[in-house]
């Protein structure tokens, strides 16, 4: 009786899934907690600026202390690997977020005012522009609460100095002496910071629209020198 040789079929390894960039792993389920992430699945990569803006949004909502990698990753719909693709640490992200806030303010506020040659009209435009930029004020107010943080204090110092210098120069161009211009700039800036504290930290009832607009007009009439 002849025997038939049986050959064992060759074994093949299952195909390994192609590794995705951390940003493309999507929302899905949070590996640590098992909870669904609230953000929709992403199809593109996040940039460092995306992370910095998300950190600024979180500062505006919950303050500097709330900035952390895991909640931001859930918000953005990515894993923590995406964060470490761009930043070595949470503090590095915070520095990038504050630098972004500082840069955007320079471009959106001072950049828009630069073409206005008349100093009084420029000051009026500054009052109007600043009065209606709510989110930037909320971020600034939250940063004032965190001045003991080593990343926050230098940025607030630079921003405040630049604002005071800009105001002083504008009041000088409007006809005030150097000393009077410095005093007027400090008075205006103190009024601004105090208004933020009343509304955002002491939780004074917010003004109605018409009342707020009248307040802004009163500030302009009081502090901008007449021709």
Structure description:
This protein is mainly α and 227 residues long. The protein is 62% helix and 0% strand. It is built from nine helices and no strands. It has helices at residues 48-62, 69-76, 80-86, 90-113, 119-131, 134-145, 152-173, 178-201, 209-223. The chain is elongated. The model is unreliable at 1-10, 12-22, 24-37 and 39-43 (pLDDT under 50).
Helix content: 55-70%
- Rounded to the nearest angstrom, the distance between the terminal CA atoms is 121 Å
Please mark out the parts with pLDDT under 50 across 5 or more consecutive residues, or reply none: 1-10, 12-22, 24-37, 39-43
Cα gyration radius (Å): 27 Å
Major sheet size, sense and barrel closure: none
| Separate helix tally | 9
List the helices and strands and how they pair.
Blueprint: H1 48-62, H2 69-76, H3 80-86, H4 90-113, H5 119-131, H6 134-145, H7 152-173, H8 178-201, H9 209-223
What would you say about this model in short?
The chain has helices at residues 48-62, 69-76, 80-86, 90-113, 119-131, 134-145, 152-173, 178-201, 209-223. With 227 residues, the chain is mostly helical.
Keywords:
mainly alpha; 9 helices; 62% helix; 0% strand; elongated
